[in-house]
Design goal:
The complex is a heterodimer.
Chain A (H helix, E strand, L loop, with lengths): L1 H17 L7 H29 L3 E5 L8 E5 L1 H24 L9 H18 L5 H19 L6 H32 L4 H7 L5 H19 L8 H7 L2 H26 L6 H22 L4 H28 L3 H36 L10 H4 L1 H14 L6 H14 L1 H4 L2 H33 L6 H4 L6 H19 L1 H16 L9 E2 L2 E3 L6 E2 L1 H23 L4 E4 L17 H4 L1 H6 L1 H4 L2 E6 L10 E7 L3 H22 L6 H20 L3
Antiparallel strand pairs in A: 1-2, 3-4, 4-5, 7-8
Chain B lengths: L1 H31 L7 H13 L2 E4 L4 H19 L16 H21 L3 H32 L4 H10 L6 H18 L18 H4 L5 H26 L10 H28 L8 H22 L4
Helix pairs in contact in B: 1-2, 1-9, 1-10, 2-9, 3-4, 3-9, 4-5, 5-7, 5-11, 7-9, 7-11, 9-10
The chains are: A mainly alpha, B mainly alpha.
């Protein structure tokens, strides 16, 4: 089995390098680099499924000459679960990339793209398997840097550069906090190895635990893009090539969930009750604000990026409930909540990956991401439309797709709070569940808008009118994910026990699976509810087919006349008369105006003709409060300090030499006096 | 076996009864305006006529437009099949719970609002945007009302909740469950597109919500949509009657008990339709941006219901 993992690593390394052999031939480089990534993905799926299904962990230890301990790689079912998610999505994204990167071939170096792409995946694979803090940080940094170069791949665009810089700054702030957390544990445990951290978990002092918890929350929270640490995410994710956006939103931010879970369940031992509450608070904030901001976006990829923030919130709702139950010593409920979180991890990876690939397909077919210029694509790009619709339905948590399954699990996990937790939790957990319902309904609105405005109606621009369908490999990449959206829903009662293994290998607590699944049913562990995705599909399809057939039998063939849409008797419906993306979300912008604080500016031309004025410019903006209140003052402060520091930097080399001289004298005086 | 036949029967009964409830409210409104109003046969023959008619479909429409009536009907019917109507059992109640019930309705709405955008008209976009906005706000209130009831009944299954309220004596909690009733009533009005949230009789662009989404439909598709809409309305009325007036005879199915429960059911849903109609007659349609306030009231009522049960009921 381990062989497949080595093959996966080898192919990614080869795929990263081999592209340079064909640097002059874009198409060959593309095929080699992405083709090897596809094969690596297949090998990775075999390996991780093997570990997950057999439950046999795998480990490898390489003694190095570094004084930080051995490089130990291991894959228990928990790691293997993340390996599976990464491998599966990278498989689909790599297939997609073969067709998608063709348009870059004329102007960009595909070998370079393939290099960063392969090493980005490779770094993620190592992050979730490595068992040593030093190497973890090394691969974490490699992952961040590789993805940075992918974000700024189109560096000729200023917005890509500025998004890249912001990403680089934020990710390093996060890494600083993670490093601090690891160093605190290192001081306590005396070793960088994860096993030592685990062994020393019981003897951590409460104060140190709290400090480490907060550092970890900020550190991994930055990578996960939870509000208020999210500002880089909606900037950086859309700038990367779409198959990379899919990986960044689909799996890279999930490595933060991995890190967070490992810390919370393995390194910190017994925990105070407020940790779970803090995570729940952060989670619900991200869930609601994420989707509310997504609703206001008209840029297809930015909309998807904001919705990733929402979905990270949903995952963290499960994590938070798992912590709450862990502190209450209810391993069954904690395990269930953890399974809900893990299920949403894989579901979000699949449908968000699918949606980003769909957006990429739209981008390559129309050369625009702005929904105001799209419309009517369902005719020009029928396959992309079907795949995007499947993704949209999944993310809107509609039955019978996979998004509903994990949302249902999260609902039940939250409602378990009514059963045994504290009185406050009894009240807040149904409330949180209702707010999750609000987020789900808003997500449905958001994706009706995203799909409806982009794919339905009439084309709003020349670009959209002359769109072309995605190539075969792009369709295959999307198709794999779309089918998985159905598969992950129908097979849910058989997937939950597998996730139970992963959860067990993380938390160590035994989860009796008979309490969670029975035959084709998912069960609530408190016995309050059951649900069968398979039967729902059956019921829905029987009713659907029944309606079609009965109508046909009773009333015969339908007679249809095709005519123009109703234009109120005034001939000529223009595409411009359709609802715009901005207009679609206007009612919600108004209802939630206390949050958005929308501003708009209308500039008119010729002031003299009061009756014939036409608006020449219209600008409508919403306020992102976190940016305004936290990051703007912060960046101004940094700029201010730099300006102050500039006063002693004149540019004269003599002056700098004298600074050095004075510093030297002062140091000599200070330390010379001591010894 | 007889239980299954009975469940199928009650589902079909609900579907066939649904237009009659719409007729009842129409008739009430007509008589309040000194009009005669339609006869009961009229609503059924209207549906039948629509089913037989040819369709005119927009040249802009794609397959989404053709699929929508069927998806809407199937998902509404599936939601209805989870609901106990005459007895305490339903046909497919065992397949899921209240969360599934809510999301099945969301599935139909998702396609309804997509199809509205499909024809590329302003009205469609307007209806789609408004329908999604309002239902986004109604859904959490609906869910929370359910959660507050399931908190008492210790189950999320619709059947289970109905059974709990039918068999137990929750009289001591009547005040707090009635708050949940208020929440559900408001959601019912919003979901079935009634005044003061939406005016089912209007074709004025300023006030249309639901009607605007289906403006381009005709013939058989329109009949299916109208029918699903009526079924959805009756589903909500049945839900209210199931949960809050659970007096009925359940279990055995001899002719007497069956007749009695049928009579009680009809009495309850027509009474609730009377309440809805009464509200419709006595109130004006709210301005679109006042509706969120009404839905917020529903949400607060659901919160109060939950809170009250926690404090007074001790959460037992």
């Amino acid at each position: 089995m381990a062989l497949f993992f080595y093959i996966q690593i080898l192919f990614h390394v080869l795929g990263g390098i081999a592209g340079f052999l064909f640097e002059q031939h874009g198409e060959k480089a593309n095929r080699v680099t992405h083709g090897l990534a596809v094969l690596a993905g297949v090998a990775g799926i075999v390996f991780s499924l093997g570990v997950l299904l057999t439950g046999k962990p795998w480990a490898l230890e390489l003694e190095g000459s570094f004084p930080v301990g051995a490089l130990r790689l291991s894959a228990d079912p928990f790691s293997a679960f993340f390996l599976l998610v990464i491998s599966f999505l990278s498989l689909a994204a790599s297939i997609f990339a073969i067709g998608y990167t063709r348009e870059y071939q004329k102007r960009k170096n595909i070998a370079l793209l393939g290099f960063f792409y392969n090493f980005f995946i490779l770094a993620m694979l190592f992050v979730v398997t490595v068992q040593n803090a030093f190497y973890f940080l090394l691969f974490w940094e490699l992952m961040s840097l590789a993805s940075y170069f992918l974000v700024v791949f189109e560096h000729e665009k200023p917005e890509a550069r500025s998004a890249g810089t912001l990403y680089l700054i934020m990710t390093h702030v996060g890494t600083a906090f993670i490093t601090a957390a690891f160093l605190l544990l290192y001081i306590h445990a005396g070793s960088f190895s994860f096993d030592a951290f685990r062994a020393a978990a019981g003897t951590l002092s409460p104060a140190l635990k709290n400090v480490v918890f907060l550092a970890v929350l900020i550190g991994f929270g930055t990578k996960a893009g939870v509000i208020p640490l999210h500002i880089w995410l909606p900037q950086a994710h859309p700038q990367a090539p779409s198959h990379v956006s899919a990986l960044m939103s689909g799996v890279m931010i999930k490595t933060a969930v991995y890190g967070l879970l490992v810390f919370l369940f393995n390194f910190l031992g017994e925990m105070p009750g407020w940790w779970g509450h803090v995570i729940l608070a952060v989670a619900i904030l991200s869930t609601l604000l994420g989707i509310l901001y997504a609703l206001m976006e008209n840029d297809l990829k930015r909309l998807l990026a904001f919705s990733s923030i929402e979905n990270m919130g949903i995952i963290l709702l499960g994590v938070g409930m798992a912590l709450v139950f862990k502190t209450l010593h209810q391993p069954l409920y904690a395990g269930f909540a953890l399974i809900a979180a893990l299920y949403h991890v894989i579901n979000h990876a699949i449908f968000k990956g699918l949606l980003f690939l769909g957006a990429g397909s739209v981008l390559s077919g129309t050369h625009t991401r702005n929904m105001e210029g799209l419309g009517g694509l369902i005719r020009k790009m029928p396959w992309t439309a079907v795949f995007f619709l499947v993704g949209a339905m999944a993310i809107a948590a509609l039955p019978p797709l996979n998004g509903f399954v994990s949302e249902w699990l999260t609902f039940i996990a939250l409602l378990l709070g009514c059963e045994g937790a504290s009185p406050a939790m009894r009240f807040f957990s149904p409330l949180l569940a209702a707010l999750l319902g609000l987020a789900g309904a808003l997500a449905a609105t958001c994706f009706v808008k995203a799909f409806g405005i982009s794919f339905l109606g009439k084309p709003r621009s020349e670009h959209a009118a002359h769109a072309h369908e995605a190539s075969g490999s792009m369709k295959t990449g999307m198709g794999v994910l779309a089918v998985s959206c159905f598969g992950l829903a129908l097979a849910a009662p058989w997937i939950v026990p597998v996730l139970g293994k992963a959860a067990k290998s993380l938390s160590g607590a035994d989860i009796p699976m008979t309490a969670l699944t029975q035959k084709a049913f998912l069960m609530s562990p408190s016995g309050t509810s059951q649900f069968s995705p398979l039967l729902i599909v059956l019921v829905l399809s029987v009713f659907l087919l029944g309606t079609v057939i009965l109508l046909r039998l009773t009333f015969g063939r339908k007679h249809v006349r095709i005519g123009p849409s109703w234009d109120c008797g005034m001939p000529g419906l223009e595409p411009r008369m359709q609802y715009t993306a901005t207009g679609y979300s206007k009612p919600l912008r108004r209802i939630f105006s206390f949050l958005y604080q929308p501003t708009r500016r209308v500039e008119l031309d010729d002031e003299s003709h009061a009756m014939l004025r036409t608006a020449q410019r219209f600008e409508s903006k919403i306020t992102h409060h976190v940016d305004e209140w936290v990051y703007k003052p912060l960046s101004e402060l940094v700029a201010d300090l730099s300006r102050k520091a500039k006063q002693i930097q004149t540019g004269h080399i003599q002056l700098y030499l004298s600074y050095i001289f004075i510093t030297l004298i002062l140091l000599l005086l200070f330390f010379g006096g001591r010894s | 076996m007889s239980a299954i036949i009975f469940s199928v029967f009650q589902l079909l009964f609900l579907a066939i009864l649904a237009p009659a409830l719409s007729w009842f409210i129409k008739k009430m409104k007509a008589s309040s305006q000194n009009r005669v109003g339609p006869s009961l046969v009229q609503v059924y023959s209207d549906l039948l006529k629509l089913f037989r008619k040819d369709m005119v479909i927009s040249e802009t429409a794609s397959w989404v437009f053709h699929a929508m009536p069927f998806v809407l009907f199937a998902s509404t019917f599936a939601a209805a099949s989870m609901l106990p109507v005459l007895g305490v059992h339903s046909l497919f109640g065992f397949t899921g719970d209240v969360i599934l019930f809510v999301y099945l309705l969301a599935l139909g709405r998702f396609f309804l609002t997509l199809a509205a955008l499909d024809t590329g008209t302003t009205f469609g976009g307007m209806g789609s945007s408004r329908e999604m906005t309002l239902s986004s706000l109604a859904e959490p209130a609906l869910l929370l009302a359910f959660f507050s009831l399931s908190f008492r009944a210790h189950t999320l299954s619709l059947e289970g909740i109905v059974l709990y309220f039918a068999s137990g004596s929750p009289a001591q909690m009547l005040f707090f469950t009635s708050l949940a009733f208020g929440a559900l009533l408001i959601v019912t009005i919003a979901e079935s597109g009634r005044i003061p949230v939406d005016n089912p009789a209007t074709h004025l662009e300023l006030t249309m919500v639901h009607e605007a989404t289906i403006l381009e439909y005709s013939g058989r598709y329109l009949a299916l949509i109208e029918w699903s809409h009526q079924i959805k309305q009756l589903v909500f009325l049945t839900l209210l009657s199931d949960l809050f007036f659970p007096w009925r005879i359940s279990g055995s199915w001899d002719l007497l008990t069956f007749g009695l429960s049928l009579f009680l059911y009809l009495a309850k849903v027509f009474f609730l339709a009377f309440v809805i109609g009464w509200i419709e007659i006595h109130s004006a349609k709210l301005r679109l941006f006042r509706v969120p306030d009404l839905l917020a009231v529903a949400f607060v009522l659901a919160i109060l219901s939950l809170l009250g049960q926690l404090i007074i009921g001790g959460g037992a």
